[in-house]
Structures are given as structure tokens and as C-alpha cells.
Write a structure and sequence with these properties.
Rossmann fold; six-stranded mixed beta sheet; single chain
Length: 200
């Protein structure tokens, strides 16, 4: 750790070790959901976990599945039906990618069973399929940091959509009680070490 602070690779390695010690829950696969508010650092952690995890690992991004800025409330049912439940049955799954530029659903993408499936994005840790989640990771960061990251990534012109999205996600997290259900709490600014609530 640099200066006593964990970097994202170290956090990912800790999570990979934790997950490897837990039994498979998605048929013969392990299933990690990385949830938390937009701009908190979920995608960065997912990429690091892909590198730290087993060779047979797939990362699916919720950003590819939402139906636009208003799609948060509808996404979990599609994810459960098309992606999670088929994999839980040991079958090939799929999801339909959303084209943000054309503002419409596009091609279907196939997801084969793997040793580790990582689903990252707001709402990924849905209660609807909590029974097959191996480890639920919650990533958080201060609101001003998340807004600054969002504007840097997507441009100042999307700030109204970002602020509306933040309201939608706050309602979702309150309804889902996501943070309280998480196995691991991660500081997306890298200041604090992860908090592991793993009972095993």
C-alpha cells in the first residue's frame, strides 16, 4: 500500500481471495455484483477484479443494459430474466445492448458460463436475484467527487441528466437496502481500507 492507503489492485485482490473461498452460487460459477452510486469507482474496481480473478472471468457492465437515462427502474427484471437466471441454470445467457448514441436497444450479446461473472453498475446487486450472488460489493464516494467524475467523463452538458439519475439511484438504493446487504464496503476514493462483512 502506498502511504498506508490501499490501491485498487490491492482491493481487487482482497475481494478475489474472499470470493474464491466462498462456494459457487451461480450454478458452477461465482457471481460478484459491484454496486453503488454513479461515479464512485465501480468500473475501475471491476477491471481490477478481472485482472485479479481467475482466467475464466467475464465482466458485464450495467451501462450497456440500461435503456437510457430513464432506464434504471426497469433494468433489474431484464438482467434477471436474460442474464442471471439462465446462468444459474447452467445455460448460456444473453443481454441486449443499449446504444446510447442512437437511443435504442441494439444487438444481443451472449454470455457463456465462466468461473467468475462480475456484474458492475448501479442496481447490479438487485434483491431479485440475491439468492445467487456470491459476493455483493458496495463502492461509495462523496457526492461532489462523483459529480466531478461524471462531468469529466461525459461532459458538462449531461449534468442535468446526472443529477436526475442520482435522485433515481438514491430511491433505488433505499428500496433495495443495497449498502446494508453488501458483503464488502469499498471507499472509491482509496482513502480507507475495505470493510469486509463476510460471515464465512
Amino acid at each position: 500500500m502506498r502511504g498506508g492507503q490501499p490501491n485498487v489492485a490491492e482491493v481487487a485482490e482482497q475481494i478475489a481471495i474472499l470470493v474464491s473461498r466462498r462456494p459457487a452460487t451461480l450454478a458452477e460459477s461465482r457471481f460478484v455484483c459491484i454496486d453503488g452510486p454513479a461515479g464512485s469507482g465501480k468500473t475501475t474496481l471491476a477491471r481490477a477484479l478481472r485482472r485479479a480473478g481467475p482466467a475464466s472471468c467475464r465482466v458485464v457492465h450495467m451501462d450497456d443494459i440500461y435503456e437510457g437515462w430513464q432506464g434504471l427502474g426497469r433494468v433489474s427484471k431484464r438482467v434477471e430474466r436474460d442474464l442471471v437466471r439462465p446462468l444459474a441454470a447452467g445455460s448460456t445467457a444473453r443481454y441486449q445492448r443499449y446504444d446510447w448514441h442512437r437511443e435504442r436497444l441494439a444487438e444481443w450479446r451472449t454470455v457463456e458460463p465462466v468461473d467468475l461473472l462480475v456484474l458492475e453498475g448501479v442496481g447490479s446487486g438487485s434483491r431479485g436475484y440475491a439468492d445467487v450472488i456470491t459476493t455483493l460489493v458496495w463502492v461509495e464516494a462523496p457526492r461532489d467527487v462523483r459529480i466531478a467524475r461524471g462531468v469529466e467523463r461525459d461532459g458538462q452538458q449531461v449534468l442535468p441528466q446526472w443529477l436526475a439519475w442520482m435522485g433515481d439511484e438514491a430511491e433505488l438504493f433505499a428500496h433495495e437496502d443495497t449498502r446494508a446487504r453488501a458483503d464488502v464496503l469499498v471507499d472509491g476514493t482509496g482513502v480507507s481500507s475495505p470493510v469486509v462483512r463476510d460471515p464465512h
